[in-house]
Specification:
By secondary structure, this protein is of the alpha/beta class. It has helices at residues 2-8, 39-47, 165-170, 182-191, 207-216, 238-253, 265-273, 301-308, and strands spanning 53-55, 57-60, 65-70, 72-73, 79-80, 85-92, 99-105, 111-117, 122-130, 136-144, 149-153, 195-203, 224-227, 256-262, 281-284, 294-296. Residues 151-293 form the LNS2/PITP domain.
Length: 318
C-alpha cells in the first residue's frame, strides 16, 4: 500500500503513451519492386526466409531520433543483406497517413540508420521495405515527456515460465509458455497509462521471435529492447547491458521507472545499479524476494489484483 500511495503523489507532468494510433495504421502502399543490385542477394532471398528486425527507440521530447534496422535471411544462418536499398515510412500520433522518410543502403552488416528528426510527443511505427523482394519489418519510436512513468519487464523466466522457453520457441519446438496472468499484468499497466518497457538480454537476432510471442499473448509489442550482441545464444555481461539501459532510460530519456520485474540475480543487481529501489523491484521464480526485493510466488494471479486495484493510474490520466 505504501508503494501505491507514493505513486499517487507523483505530479501530473507527462502525456500518456499513445498505444492506439501506431498499432492501427492506415492502408500501406510501399515501393515498387526492383531487381536486387547484387545477383548474390537475389539468390539469398530466393533460398532463405527474411529475418529482419528493427531496434525500437525512445527519446525525450525535443530530441532528434534515429532508428536502426538490420536485414538478414534465415533463422539460423542470418546471412546479411549487403548493399541494397530499403525504404522507410512513418506513421503515428497526430498523423493522417504514412509519411515517406527515404531510402537507405544497407551496410556490410545489413544495417541502416534512419534519421526521424524531432517529432511531437507520441508513439510512431516505422515500416521498412526491402526494394529487391518487398520483404520488410517494423520498429517503433516513442517520444516522451520527462517524468513519464514507466514499468520495466524482463521476459525470459519473468513473463515466460523459465529461461529455456525462449530457445525452444526459437528453434520451433514449441511456443514459450507464459506464467499464468503475466500478459494481463502487462496489459493492466498499459491500460493505466504507464510506459511499458521490455528489456531482454536476448541477442537481437531473436527479436522476431520475441515480438511474435508478444503478439500471441495479445500484448502490445513496444517498447522492446534486446541485446545488440551478435554472437552465440547467451550474450556476455547481461547485467551491465541491463544496467546501462536502465540508466539511459532514467538519465537521458527522463523516464520515471516506478516498478521493474525480473527473475534472475542479474536482474536484481542491474535494476539496483540502475537506480531502481528494491521496494519497487518484483522478482518471480527461485529468487523471489531475494536481496530485499518484492516476491511474486508461483504465478501472477494474486499480483494481478494488486496491479488492477491498489495501483493508481499513471499521473497522465489524473
Amino acid at each position: 500500500m505504501a508503494i501505491a500511495c507514493a505513486l499517487s503523489a507523483l505530479p501530473a507532468v507527462a502525456a500518456c503513451p499513445d498505444y492506439t494510433t501506431a498499432a492501427n495504421p492506415p492502408a500501406f502502399s510501399g515501393p515498387a519492386k526492383k531487381t536486387f543490385s547484387k545477383f548474390g542477394n537475389t539468390i539469398l532471398a530466393g533460398l532463405y526466409k527474411p529475418w529482419h528486425m528493427a531496434h525500437d527507440t525512445i527519446v525525450k521530447a525535443g530530441t532528434t531520433a534515429t532508428i536502426t534496422a538490420k536485414f538478414d535471411y534465415d533463422a539460423v544462418l542470418h546471412k546479411d543483406l549487403e548493399g541494397e536499398r530499403v525504404h522507410a515510412y512513418l506513421y503515428g500520433t497526430g498523423m493522417s497517413g504514412w509519411q515517406y522518410v527515404g531510402n537507405y543502403l544497407t551496410d556490410s552488416d545489413g544495417k541502416i540508420k534512419v534519421p526521424l528528426g524531432t517529432r511531437p510527443v507520441g508513439d510512431y511505427v516505422v515500416r521498412f521495405v526491402v526494394e529487391g523482394d518487398l520483404s520488410g519489418t517494423t520498429g517503433y519510436l516513442s517520444v516522451v515527456d520527462p517524468g513519464r512513468e514507466a514499468v520495466v519487464f524482463d521476459i525470459d523466466g519473468t513473463l515466460t515460465i523459465n529461461d529455456f522457453e525462449a530457445y525452444a520457441d526459437y528453434v520451433g519446438v514449441k511456443t514459450a509458455t507464459a506464467y499464468y496472468a503475466a500478459p494481463q499484468v502487462v496489459n493492466a499497466y498499459r491500460e493505466k497509462g504507464y510506459q511499458v518497457i521490455f528489456l531482454t538480454a536476448r541477442p537481437y537476432w531473436v527479436t522476431k521471435d520475441g515480438l511474435e510471442w508478444l503478439d500471441i499473448q495479445k500484448v502490445g509489442r513496444w517498447h522492446y529492447h534486446s541485446n545488440p550482441y551478435g554472437g552465440g545464444p547467451i550474450p556476455p555481461d547481461t547485467q551491465k547491458f541491463k544496467t546501462d539501459y536502465v540508466r539511459h532510460l532514467r538519465d537521458v530519456v527522463g523516464l520515471n521507472i516506478v516498478r521493474a520485474y525480473g527473475n534472475a540475480t542479474t536482474d536484481i543487481a542491474a535494476y539496483a545499479d540502475g537506480g531502481i529501489a528494491k521496494a519497487n523491484t518484483y522478482i518471480i521464480g527461485p529468487n523471489a524476494g531475494a536481496s530485499g526485493t518484492q516476491p511474486i510466488h508461483g504465478e501472477y494471479g494474486s499480483h494481478l489484483s494488486f496491479v488492477v486495484t491498489p495501483t493508481p493510474v499513471a499521473s497522465c490520466k489524473r
